[in-house]
Design goal:
about 55 residues, mainly alpha, about 0% strand, about 75% helix
Length: about 55
């Protein structure tokens, strides 16, 4: 998921947000899981607003 946000210019932001919604809907990952990998891909600042909106 963090990779989708890292490559958001290639896959478009809409695709990354929809993937986030789908993974949260299917309960495949938690916010803690996503926030653990976000710093690794350096997308914390980009991903955090979308995580808060999807909750």
């Amino acid at each position: 998921m963090a990779d989708c946000f890292k490559c958001r210019n290639k896959v478009e932001l809409d695709v990354a947000v929809e993937a986030l919604r789908g993974s949260r809907r299917q309960r495949k990952c938690t916010n803690d899981d996503l926030l653990r990998f976000a710093p690794i891909c350096r997308v914390v600042a980009v991903m955090r607003p979308y995580l808060e909106a999807v909750q």
